[in-house]
Write a structure and sequence with these properties.
alpha+beta, 330 residues, eight-stranded mixed sheet, 33% helix
Length: 330
C-alpha cells in the first residue's frame, strides 16, 4: 500500500519552512542566530521523521571547514532513475540579506566552486536560503508563491530555493544584490507540489520544476531572456533515460546581504569581454545539463538507496538526502 506521496512531502517541507521562518526571526531578535548547518540538520531530520519510508539521509564524516555552509546532495528518484542537486545553504542575516561573496579559500567565490563541483558530480547546482523576513512580489501576473496544497503565508518563505546561476549572475556586478536573488527564488516545497499535475509522475514534475530554474537562470546569465514569471513544469513528456551510467561527468567576507536596495548592474554576452576557456567549457556543461533527460542514478547513489553507507562525490559534501518519488510499500 502506498504510504506517502509527493503531496504529503510538499506539506512537510511547507511546514518546515514556516518553523524555520519563525525560529530564525526569534534567533535574530535574541542576537544569536543558528548557523546554516543547524537549520539544515533540523529541516532534514523533520523530513526524515515524517517520511522515513521515502527519505534516506546519509551524513558524511567531515571537519568544521568542510561542513561549513551545510553542503549536501539532494537526490530524487523512482527506482534506479532520478536526478540530483548539489545544494549550498545560506542563512539570511538580520536585515534579510545573504553573504554571497564568500571565498572559502580566500581566492575563488564559493559559488564558482559549487557550480564546478556540481557539474563533476552530475548534479544541478542550487542554493537553499533560510529566511525570516517577507518580501513583496515584484513580478506581475500570477503569483508564484502559492501552493496547491495550502494557502500561502509568509512562513513558506522560510526555506526557498534558487539556481546557483542566479547567484553567479548577480556576482558579475560590482555589488551582489540579495533582492535580485530573492525575486528569482521559490519556496522549496513547490518542487514537490503536484496538486495541479496529479496525472503526471511525481519524479517528472519535480525534475521539470528544478530544470526550469536551471534553464531560465542560464538563459538570463547568457543575456537571452528574462526569468519567467511563473514557476512552470517543463518536462511533461514521458521520462527518457540518458545512456551514460554516471551522468554529468564530461576566507574573506563582504558585508552580509551586500546590496539589498541598490540596483545590480547586469552584464550580457553582447559587448562583454570574451569568456575564458575555462568559463566557455563550463557554459557548455551547463547547457548540456539544461537539455539532459532524467537518467539512471550513479552507482554510488543507487548503493545508498539500497542501504549502503555511501561515499561523497568529493570532499566538500557533508551528506546526501535521497527522496523516493516512486511507489512505497509497507
Amino acid at each position: 500500500m502506498r504510504t506517502s506521496s509527493a503531496s504529503s512531502l510538499c506539506r512537510t517541507l511547507s511546514r518546515s519552512a514556516e518553523l524555520t521562518f519563525e525560529a530564525l526571526a526569534a534567533e535574530h531578535r535574541r542576537g544569536w542566530p543558528s548557523s546554516e548547518v543547524t537549520h539544515a540538520e533540523e529541516n532534514l531530520r523533520a523530513l526524515y521523521r515524517a517520511h522515513g519510508d521515502r527519505v534516506a539521509i546519509h551524513p558524511f564524516a567531515s571537519d568544521e571547514e568542510r561542513s561549513n555552509g551545510a553542503d549536501w546532495e539532494w537526490w530524487f528518484h523512482s527506482g534506479a532513475v532520478g536526478f540530483g542537486m548539489r545544494v549550498q545553504a545560506k542563512r539570511a542575516n538580520r536585515n534579510g540579506g545573504y553573504d554571497l561573496r564568500y571565498r572559502p579559500d580566500g581566492d575563488r567565490h564559493q559559488n564558482d566552486l559549487l557550480i564546478e563541483n556540481a557539474m563533476n558530480a552530475g548534479c544541478i547546482p542550487a542554493y537553499v536560503f533560510y529566511n525570516h523576513l517577507n518580501w513583496p512580489q515584484r513580478r506581475p501576473g500570477e503569483p508564484w508563491l502559492g501552493c496547491d496544497h495550502s494557502t500561502f503565508n509568509e512562513g513558506q518563505l522560510g526555506c526557498t530555493i534558487a539556481s546557483a546561476l542566479v547567484v553567479k549572475q548577480t556576482l558579475r556586478g560590482a555589488r551582489a544584490s540579495s533582492r535580485y536573488v530573492k525575486d528569482r527564488s521559490r519556496p522549496w516545497n513547490r518542487i514537490l507540489c503536484d496538486g495541479s499535475e496529479s496525472r503526471a509522475p511525481s519524479l517528472e514534475i519535480a525534475y521539470g520544476r528544478v530544470l526550469s530554474l536551471h534553464q531560465t537562470a542560464l538563459a538570463e546569465l547568457e543575456g537571452e531572456t528574462e526569468l519567467s514569471e511563473n514557476f512552470r513544469v517543463v518536462a511533461r513528456t514521458p521520462i527518457r533515460l540518458a545512456n551514460p551510467e554516471e551522468p554529468g561527468r564530461v576566507g574573506r567576507h563582504q558585508h552580509d546581504g551586500e546590496d539589498d536596495r541598490g540596483r545590480v548592474e547586469h552584464e550580457t554576452t553582447r559587448g562583454a569581454a570574451p569568456l575564458s576557456p575555462t568559463e566557455r567549457a563550463l557554459r557548455g556543461q551547463l547547457r548540456e545539463m539544461a537539455d539532459r533527460p532524467v537518467g539512471r542514478l550513479p552507482q554510488r547513489v543507487r548503493a545508498m538507496a539500497h542501504g549502503a553507507e555511501g561515499e561523497p562525490a568529493d570532499e566538500r559534501v557533508a551528506g546526501a538526502v535521497l527522496v523516493n518519488l516512486g511507489s512505497a510499500e509497507t
